[in-house]
Amino acid sequence: MTDFFDNKRPAKASLESLMRIFTIPEAPGSTLGRIETEISQNLNGFLANHIVAEERSLNDIEKDFADSAIPEQPQYVSDHTHHLLEKLIAQSVHTSAPSFIGHMTSALPYFLLPLSKLMTGLNQNLVKIETSKAFTPLERQVLGMMHRLVYEEQDDFYHTWMHSAQHSLGAFCSGGTIANITALWVARNNLLKADGDFKGVAKQGIHKALIHYGYEDVAILVSERGHYSLKKAADILGIGRDNVIAVKTDANNRMDIDALKTECQRLQQQNIRIMSIVGVAGTTETGNVDPLREMAQIAKQYDSHFHVDAAWGGATLLSNQYRHLLDGIELADSVTIDAHKQMYVPMGAGLVVFKNPAAVSSIEHHAEYILRKGSKDLGSHTLEGSRPGMAMMVYASLHIISRPGYELLINQGIEKARYFADIIDQDPDFELVTSPELCLLTYRYVPSQVQAFLKNANEQQTKDINKILDNLTKFIQKRQREAGKSFVSRTKIKVQTYFDQKVLVFRVVLANPLTTHEILHEVLAEQKQLAMESLEWLPQLLNKTSG
């Protein structure tokens, strides 16, 4: 009898062979077991390789995935596995590599690999207890643990609310974007709730809500460094992207409190209701933290929902030494945290917690066949319907690593970023653009001669030089990425010392515990070497600033 694991290919798919792929082979030496071993060995080999990516162009890789026809002939798992290993795995980005320091991904603890298999095999759906059972109370517990991390309530609070069918301490979701949308969804529905003959914005829409409450419009205030997911939220919620107001930042990339006060007064005078003020705890570009305590006071003054987007920096709360950097976060009405960032779990683990367990009732939804009233189904308070049991990964990590373990990881990242900033400062040909507050910083390659010229340059001269520097930065970053030995990202940020001009900079995230001081020195050395190889931008730059 042939099946999808045999080496004899069937002429076509049969019901019998299809049934066999849904049955786990029991034989200890089964072909499936050998395939799993091969996959494991190849994955381990890939993860042990310290290069970021193979030096192969994306156009070349696209040729392997150019056929849009759905196969008519079944493939054996063994054959297809070899295809994936050769064409997909070998050409993936090695986000665990210690020299991959450009984005908010990192090496994962090894114990998550077998746990991921467990989660996939069980295939629980957290929308409903009928499809999750024990996973539902586990997810509620994880939300309680994360709520306690932020708000530090006492035991009796969590005994009362954590497993209450009518309440929820938050929502687990696929990432920070959905978490931010959920927070602002709750804020909108609570602000424009049912009142008298008006049935609420959830039923009658934003237009009728504004008419009923007599507002010209509603707005969301966030700093210039706010994440783009907030505009997605405004779009989806019918508020409009233009009503996400960007408040200017200070020299340290934090929201300017005086500018926030001025903007609030302006909106109030125009009868535009401030639905939410959003603080950022760890901006994605520079890693800075807004003055959360002062922002909370202003939100209270205007009776606005205070949300903190701590998707990146929220894990800092696990460090007793650096928790103070997020001072005031406990005053937020809601907080977003991405566990798949500095809590080192795989992608797909975002969450939002709410200070008030009753806040989520404004978005509660039910269906006759699922999410019935009175049940403890988590899906009644989430934007997403079907969801995997990613909370198990967070639950396991919190127990296996523990808070003190996380503190060591958080502290190490912050201190490593400070070390990198120091060696950048000490090199006359590099310029530190933003110092690290958490474990994220920006810098660029600027020859010492050019730095000296810029100190006395006028606005137009500065603009001209920065344009050439932008091209050089882009050249170095792209060549470094293509070489595949290491990776830093790039972004464009406004710099006050350059007449508020936007400049292109290298962006580095130092959360990977495997990244060493030696690797950081090598990254700078490689960038300096690549600058020397620039046949257009470096000579042009030096000529422009000579004499």
Task: Write out key terms for the chains shown.
18 helices; alpha/beta
Give the SSE layout.
Blueprint: H1 15-21, H2 31-48, H3 58-62, H4 77-87, H5 112-122, H6 135-151, H7 155-161, E1 170-173, H8 176-191, H9 201-213, E2 217-223, H10 229-236, E3 244-247, H11 257-269, E4 272-280, H12 292-301, E5 305-309, E6 334-338, E7 350-354, H13 391-400, H14 402-426, E8 430-434, E9 440-445, H15 448-455, H16 459-483, E10 489-495, E11 501-509, H17 517-532, H18 537-545
Descriptive report:
With 547 residues, the chain is an alpha/beta fold. Helix content is 42%, strand content 12%. It has helices spanning 15-21, 31-48, 58-62, 77-87, 112-122, 135-151, 155-161, 176-191, 201-213, 229-236, 257-269, 292-301, 391-400, 402-426, 448-455, 459-483, 517-532, 537-545; strands at 170-173, 217-223, 244-247, 272-280, 305-309, 334-338, 350-354, 430-434, 440-445, 489-495, 501-509. The strands form 2 sheets. Strands 1-7-6-5-4-2-3 form a 7-stranded mixed β-sheet, with helices on both faces. Helix 8 crosses helix 10, helix 14 (402-426) runs parallel beside helix 17 and helix 16 (459-483) crosses helix 17. The radius of gyration is 26 Å and the shape is globular.
